[in-house]
Amino acid sequence: MAPTLWRSANFRNLWFAQTVSLVGTQVTLLALPLLALLVLDASAFEISLLAAIEFLPVLLLGLPAGAWIERLPLRPVLIATDVLRGVALLAVPLAAALDVLSMPLLFAVAFAIGIGTLFFDVAQLSYLPDLVAEDRLVDANGKLELSRSVSQLGGPGVGGFLVQIFTAPIALLVDAVSYLVSALFLLRIKGPVRRTVEPENLGLRKEIAEGFRFVFGHPLLRPLILCAALAELAFAAVLALQVVFAADELGLSPGVTGVVLAIGNAGGLISALLAGPISQRLGTGPTFIASIVLFSAGAAMLPMASGAVLFGAGLFVVYLGAVLFNVLQVSLCQVVTPIRLLGRMNSVFRFVTWGMVPLGAALGGALVEPVGLRGVFWGAAIITALSIIPPLLSPVRTFRESESAEPGESGDSAESTEDGAVAVRESGERG
Q: Between residues 417 and 238, which one has the greater pLDDT?
C-alpha cells in the first residue's frame, strides 16, 4: 500500500496553505456583499457586478497567464499572489475606519483579489503534479477539494457570525490575515520540486493558440470544458445573488444565511471524501455523468425554496455533484496534458470557465428586475441541466481508468483507446 499523502511535508504545507486561505475566502464571500448591502445600501445589480469584477482578470489576463506561469518558478508565484490578496483586503477595514468606504473601492479590491486568484489557481494546478506522483493525483485533488469543502462548510457560518457580532470590515480583516498565513505555509515547502521543461519560445500568440488547440482538440477535455462553461455561466448568477435571495426573498438574517450556506456546502465535503471510491466503483465516465445529474437537480431545487431548509438542501445537492465533477476533471486534465502544456491547459480552462462567471453574474443581476430573483434561478437551473449534453454525447460517458496508460508510462505520441481517449501526460502533443 502506498504511503499516505499526509506523510509528505510538501503536500501537507500546500494543503494547509490552501485550507487557511479558503476559510478566509468563504468569510469574504459572505462579508463583502453584506458590507455593500448593509453599509453602502448597494442594489442587487451592484452586488452582482461586485461578484463579476472579481472574475474580470480572467477575461483580460487568463490566456497569457498560463504561458507566463510556465516560465516562472511556481512557489514564488503562489506566495506573491497570497500577499497581493491579503494586502488588497486590508484596504477595506482601513477605509471603513477612515470613513471613506465606497463601492468603487470595493470594486478595486475585488479586481485585485481576482488577479491574485487567477495566478494562484493556475500555478497551483501546475504545481501539484510536481509534488505528487501521477497515480496519487485523484487522492491529492480529493484532499485539496476536501479543504475547499471544509472551508465552505465552516467559512459562511464564521462569516455570518463575524458580520453580525463584529461588523463586515472585521470579517474581511480575518480573510486578509488568512492569506498571509497561507503564504507562510507555502514558504515551508522545500526542495527543487519543479521539473523543468525547456520553453519553445514560439511567441505568446502561438503558445496560447497551441493551448487552445490541445484542449479543444482533445476528445475528453473538449466536452468537459463545454460542460463546465455552461454550468459556471448558470451558477455564477446564483452565487452572485444567493445572499440577496436569502435576505430579500426568504427573509433570512445574516447568521441564518451563513448557517444555510454552510449546511449546503456539506455536500462538497462528503463528495470530496468519496470521489475516489465512487469513481473506482462506477468508472470515471459514469461518475462524471452522475455528478452532472446531481448538481443539475440541486440547481432546480433552489428556486422552489420558500425557507432555509429547501434552500440549504438544494445547495447541498449542488455541491455534492459539483465537487465530484471537479475532482475528476482536474485529475484527468493533469494526467492527459503534457508537462510543457500544463500552464496553458489550466489557463484555457480558467479563461473559458471562469470567464463565464462575470458574464453570468452580470446577466443574472440585470435580469432581476424583469423576471425576479426566482426567475433568474429558474433560468440558471435550465442552463445547468443542458450542461450534460456535451459529455453525454462524447467518449467521457463510457471512459474508464483502465482504458488509460498506467501511471508513469510515457511516450512521444498519444496513446488512444477505441473511444479516442488520450492516455498519458507526456504524450498527446499536437502541432
A: 238
Tell me the Ramachandran region of residue 283: left when phi exceeds 0, alpha when psi lies from -120 to 50, beta otherwise.
left
**Nearest-angstrom CA–CA distance, 129 and 46:** 39
Query: For residues 141 and 211, what is the distance between their CA atoms, to the nearest angstrom?
Result: 22
Question: Counting runs of H as helices and runs of E as strands, what totals does the chain give?
Answer: 15, 0
Beta carbons within 10 angstroms of residue 3's beta carbon: 8
Going from the C-alpha of 346 to that of each of 54, 58, 119, 225, 387, the distances in angstroms are 18, 12, 10, 11, 20
The most distant pair of C-alpha atoms in the chain lies apart, rounded to whole Å, by 65
Tell me how far apart the alpha carbons of residues 194 and 129 are, in angstroms, rounded to a whole number.
9
Place of cell 498560463: 66
What pTM was estimated for this model as a whole?
A: 0.69
Residue 193 has pLDDT above 70, yes or no: no
Grid coordinates in use for 157?
457560518
19: cell is 485550507
Higher pLDDT, 271 or 87: 87
Between CA 210 and CA 218 the distance in angstroms is: 12
